[in-house]
User: Fold this.
Amino acid sequence: MQHFKNIVLMVILLMSVLVSAQTKDRASDKNFDRYWYKKAAAQYESAVKRGDTSKETLMKLGDAYYFNSNMEKAAHWYGELFSKYENELEPKYAFRYIQTLEANGDYVLAKGLMKIYTEKLKDSGFTVDQLKNNDKLIDALQNMQPKFYVTHLSINTQFSDFGAVRFGNRVVFASARDSSVVTTRKYRWNDQPFLNLFIADTVQAGTDLKKVQPFSKNLNSKYHEASVAFTKGYDTIYFTRNNYLHDCLKRDEDGSNNLKIYRATLSNNNKWQDVTELPFSSDNYSIGHPCLSPDGKKLYFTSDMPGTIGGSDIYVVNILNDGTFSEPVNLGTNINTSGREMFPFVTKDKIYFASDGHLGYGGLDVFEAFKEGEGYSKPQNLGRPLNSGMDDFAYTVNETTRQGYVSSNRPGGAGDDDIYSFQRMDMPCIQTVEGVVTNLDSKFPEANVSVKLLSNGKVIDSTFTDANGKYAFNTAVNCEEAYKVVAAKESFDSAEKSINTNAEPNFVNEVPLEINHKLIVQEGEDLKIKIGLIYFDFDKSKITRRAEVVLDTVVGLMKEYPGMVIKIESHTDSRGNDEYNLKLSDRRAKATRDYIVSQGIEAARIESALGYGESQLLNNCSNGVSCTEEEHNINRRSEFIIVKMK
Assistant:
């Protein structure tokens, strides 16, 4: 897989490949010199099959795969190279071979080569930490406890996607996916479209992205654009592009097209305008990967300009009050090595960057260093799973939430370089709690329910459900702890649910609850409104004042649930004439219906109102059976059966 970040960054190591005079005219060499590595690799392999195992062919074959991030094949061909020409190779080939071995998990051989080349490279000037005797440090890296929870994003494609940077509540990134912004053209390095800038919406607290669109027609060109930085108000952008402006592509004296950082401003109608290159850009070297300090007064970037220690170094300039810049300053040997340092990201107290010169797992790893006076402390590898055996780079983070993005071409991705979100876990791991409260009987959402969050029996947050029954607590909960959620509402039985949070940062705990109305009960197959006795005067069906008090409860419940439809059934005890009791109960049922309608309830919501006399006794107190007054009262009842509950 091709490193697209190598396209948009410092590529001095691409310029340092040995070119043999004897093979200069071969088609494979021409393709290699044009950086058409995919095609060149196939041609070199064909040459090897035909018996060409010269040093130059094996070097370029290994390099062609190395520059395209195919570490497995690169390691194979570097191994062939070392087996034949070990004593004739430049130090950088030991470095590359070790990197590819680490990327493939062969740490035993990698450490063996380190021991050999520590002594050999003493006087070479090639001072990359990777080539020192670091047995203990390598073992420490292997045994590091995970500090990050890393998630692959759904918007990644088979092409290169990398360099996610916050733009308000959205994210801007570079991608080689096809775009309607420009006519699709292929970059011969690995036969993929050129990079453009895209923007996407964030979802799930930033753990994924959606709705990908081209970022700006005014900025995207037919060549590469990538690696952006924005001022605090998002009204100025710094971005990397090929040396291309005003439809003019410029090259250096060797015919190479380098990279430059450009600046643009946002117009009143939200269009990017006034694209200008930064004054310390050059046709003769590359600068890229801009990053602004939090106060906006310093611009950090990567370059292979004269004075660079290794393949690419990180530099800084001051942004002066009049908008001009100071001279670039190299960050020095604590940060920069004989390898490649790139993709700086600066916060108040730290700098994060990618490097293959500091000790890592293979390829580029992400490191952090703390500010110390005018410089930085010795960088620390951020460990797995943020880093892998492949290239890991373009780290950006919100230091408050510890959530951010990193790019990688590790196995298991969608294709080439992919974007991953991460949550740093060497801080309290936090999550959120939310859910929906529904009515146990109707199964519909219940509004205005008081919901409380408890920890160790103490209320730590409370809220109310909205019209859709939804609630969400503002207070975050800790990972791997026990909590309780309690829902309560007047006239309802309270409900509660215990939860044990997991270990995933920013996880959303969905806690649904069902609450049961105290006046609504399930009796057998019927759902009923549970109320007390409705009192009628002896031998009368007129609604008394005492009956009104009870029936007003039914009226209130039906107003609370405007979709409720009921039927009324009235019953008597066995005392008296059976036929008379039937007629009396029917009059009482209809009187009950009429009262409820008189209180503003639509008549259509009462399906029926019927009397059943003494035909449906609830006990054995039938005609001729001696029963107490309490036993007879059980049968003297009016029942409100819920037929429908929308």
Remarks:
- The radius of gyration is 38 Å.
- The CA atoms of residues 352 and 368 lie 4 Å apart.
